[in-house]
Design a protein that fits this description.
The chain is α/β, with parallel strands linked by helices and 966 residues long. It has 35 helices and 36 strands. The strands form seven sheets. It has an eight-stranded mixed β-barrel with strand order 18-19-21-22-23-24-25-26, surrounded by six helices.
Length: 966
Amino acid sequence: MPHRDAALTLVAASPAPPGPEHALREVLDRLGPSVFAGLLDADGVLRYANHAALQAIGVTPEQVLGQRFDTTPWWQACELSQRRLQQALASAARGQASRFDVRLATRSGDTLAMDFSLLPLYGPDGRVAWLIPSACDVSDRERARRQLRLTRHAVEQANDALFQVGPDGAFRDANTAACRLLGLTREHLLRLRVSDIDTQVDETSWPQRWREMCERGSLRFETDVRHHDGHEIPVDVSVSLVTSDGETFAHVCVDDLRERRAAEQRIQQLLQFDELTGLPNRQRLFEHLGATLQTRAETAVLVLELDRFKRINDGLGPHIGDAVLREVAQRIAASVRNIDLVARRGGDEFVIVMPAPAGAATDLARALLGAVARPMTIAGHEIHLTCSVGIAEAPGDGDHAETLLRRANAALEQAKLQGRNHFSVYARAPHDDDPEQLALETALRQALRDEQLELHYQPQVDLVQGRIVGVEALLRWMHPTLGRIAPDRFIPIAEETGLIVPIGDWVLRRAIEQAAAWQRAGLPPLRMAVNLSARQLLQADLARRIEGLLAATGLDPRRFGVEVTESMMITNVDQAVQHLRALRALGVEVSLDDFGTGYSSLSYLRRLPVDVVKIDRSLVPDVTAPAEDVSITRAIITMAHQLQMKVLAEGVESEGQAALLAANQCDQMQGWWFSAAQPAAAVEAMLRDGRRIDPALLGRRSRERTLLLVDDEENIVAALRRLLRAEGWLLLSATSAEQALELMARHEVDVILSDQRMPGMTGVELLRRARQLYPETIRLVLSGYTELQSITDAINEGAIYKFLAKPWDDEQLRAHLREAFALKEMADQNRRLDREVQAANRELAELNRRLQTLLSAQREQNEREVGSREAAQELLDAVPVPVFGIDDEDLLVFANAPAQALFGLDGNQLGGPAAEQLPQTVRPALDGDAMLVTLAGRRWWAMSRPLSGIARGRLLVLLPQAGASK
């Protein structure tokens, strides 16, 4: 220490008698246990060391005195301290004092941190005579300093921003994290106050905040701080009040909440939003729908499901499927309003919640069908999808989220049953929570058990001969108290509950039994058609069960048919096709019902094993129908005929529809016009009475040339009738286009002669309609008005054969009409030949199909017989006695191995006369009497037995005498 070192210097500078030197040493020894001191000569040799220094290294004075100071044990622990001492000794020799920190060794092996001083003392001659070293233990100070450095380092390395704030709000200190948080340098930050960065504190409110901290001692709150760039950062702030040496400041820890907030948002996103599409998920959907329904406002819920989406995942991979779902989600979101909610409930199912009045949802459903149906390109794949939509509306269909969604799902199922790519609005769908439907389900189970169900049969009529050629079995239910229950009420319940399976089995059995009864009664042959349900079509043993029912009842398979719809087969087309092919192989007719309402296409139709295409009632036109409707029906008929299929139109309700279908070559029809579905007894009466369609309607009468005259002036019609009466034609007349169309529906018209200017519909328009409805007619215009453009257009498009002008020349008019009739007869002859060729082709195709079926069955039978014969041969070869087979023509056809060995036979002898191949001694046994014979030196019983059944002839057996018996 300076004051002590100075005192030593003064003492040493005085003349140093032994007494004072001894006193100096005593002083040095009493400096304390933490102060080391000694005396060196000018050369740095140790002449004296106090007790504290000696005790520190555990030596006696004799062990160290007389040594150079830098070689003593104190300096062995730290090479750096030793070098600094050597430099200090050199400086002290020149009269320079030194002071620095050193590390000195102790006897325990530790080192002590010491504040070391080396002072020169001058002699009387003014030169350095002595050097006084002294060292004070500063280990505690070093530890405190090190701890302070560690603390400071920890503060600097902390992730949280740390500040020291004074009572005036000024920042006194801040770590690196605090500077990084605010985007400031430390120097800049220390020039700021809290109000400069805290968005919730200004200079006027800071004193109140400080008083609050002083009262409570600590605070914790959330706020936003301003970054140097201007944006705000959410932070969590913890403040602790610190008092040290009478000074008070605040220690502030600031935690950046941006990552935490982002994580919370991510968690919220995962909890309420679908990760794949970003749409609200099931939980969010229920929350939003529940809140919407509480407002009592009219709300629609649409459930959308992609049709056959599984084929995308299976065929192209899940990554393509995910991309498709994202694209569909975007298309749905683009189709709705901002106030509507679009959610993904899972898989390929989406839900739209639409606050809107009743009926608005159907417009959205149509838009969604179109949006999803647009082609999409994903990773180079062009993908075509459709969807089905179910709609339920609140409050009419329910005022709870679960109920509304369940009923929208029921409507979705109805849309899928319609062939998919449709939407359906919930209407009286059966559900567990509907008491009426639940009661009806219970009653249906009882009806099946108590035989309340019955079958009615609707006749199917041939449109060439007009006779009944088949019936369709239709299910009816007469409840004891509720009366007749319509099929559209109980069939959906049966399908949903699974009752359709036992009901379908009952219908099959009862219909086949009834058809067999009519067959045994000798009634005219007809085919019984039964509708199969979708679940029946998926049963693995369907064809085998039908074959068993046909065999058990004795019904000719050609008198039975099944009807299926396109929508049934969509779930598993391959399995359905397999069942239908098996049924056709039996001779059962297969009809495709409701054609034109589903995925109808030529390629689809060609794939199906179908005999009859049934045109849906919605596509059956009338004489007043638009021309394009007739064209669609005609196109379906032509397409089916080209595929060697027959066409049956259902839902025929008028004579005009029947006549139009017959004119367009439709094969069969059924509908109320001929007969509604009737009990079995009523159908039997129709068959016995030979009820049929009037042949005149079908054009089966003897051909008579028929001319239709159309003119709104009756005197013109009368004049034409007088002119043409002698031609022997059947003359029909009408004074309007409407009357003309009705006459054409009832009569087969060959030639039409029409005026041009008529009220309501011009002659050209009438003949255009006639061309669409009855393209085989020959059409002429007789008019005094040329109207060149419309007449020319009609001629060019083929609606008009010729245009004749008024007034007419009688002979020329007759000649034109005779030419028209000749042209018509030639066309009729060509059509008859074409129909005969088509009919012959269909019959030939049917014969070929049956022949292939028979050949296949015969081939299988032959294979079975060959297998049986081989098995029998192997069995008889194993019999240890000779066995011969002789057919009914006395030819030797079989000899087992022991027989061939006994007589030395081989295969070449088989087929020859038995009398020549067998020994003379055994031939009498062929007559049936057992006898003893001697063969190859042994005695044998020879016996023969006649064969009956498929194998005819006799079996000859030789038994050794010891084992022979009669």
